[in-house]
Inverse folding.
């Protein structure tokens, strides 16, 4: 059985949804790093960086980094269709935007969620948050422009990117901003959360 260290509405939602979708046996250890809880020390032992998702494979191997976990699960379950195969025309686009989400958008939260790690002084911290938040909105506008949304990000082919969008539109700058400035991403997220394939995971994460 896999053990997934998770937090509601965090990036672990993507991995949890894929474990459920592929039929892999797993248990969820709710371990939000920012809160004390029964699994927090357990998470610290397997991943000193205290990141969710952290996935412990049945053989004890520890995996971090959601994109790496997504690609691993896709390799184990090619029939699940969560990553376009190597010969699919959508493959290059999928890889580009998967890495864009985790390599460009994710780091803005590392900076803005705790500006005290980077600069001192209230004015400088507020300015850092303001600029990072504005930069993030610009990043999202590029994703919106690239999305096909007919009905999924890649078009007819569902992929793990759709699950990322489902949870990420709940983060800053929040759903009202996405509804106004990124209607295609909002529509994809809504389709994903309404998809019966993921209903138990959506409900457990409080996203219904």
């Amino acid at each position: 059985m896999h053990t997934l260290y998770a937090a509601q509405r965090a990036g672990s939602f993507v991995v949890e949804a894929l474990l459920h979708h592929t039929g892999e046996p797993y248990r969820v250890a709710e371990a939000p790093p920012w809160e004390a809880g029964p699994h927090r020390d357990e998470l610290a032992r397997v991943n000193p960086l205290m990141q969710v998702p952290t996935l412990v494979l049945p053989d004890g191997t520890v995996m971090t980094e959601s994109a790496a976990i997504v690609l691993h699960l896709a390799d184990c379950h090619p029939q699940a269709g969560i990553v376009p195969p190597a010969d699919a025309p959508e493959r290059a686009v999928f890889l580009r935007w998967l890495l864009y989400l985790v390599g460009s958008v994710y780091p803005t939260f590392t900076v803005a969620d705790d500006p005290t790690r980077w600069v001192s002084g209230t004015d400088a911290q507020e300015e850092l948050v303001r600029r990072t938040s504005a930069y993030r909105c610009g990043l999202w506008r590029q994703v919106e422009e690239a999305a096909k949304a007919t009905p999924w990000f890649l078009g007819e082919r569902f992929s793990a990117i759709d699950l990322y969008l489902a949870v990420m539109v709940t983060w800053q700058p929040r759903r009202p901003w996405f509804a106004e400035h990124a209607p295609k991403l909002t529509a994809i997220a809504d389709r994903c959360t309404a998809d019966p394939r993921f209903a138990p995971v959506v409900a457990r994460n409080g996203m219904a």
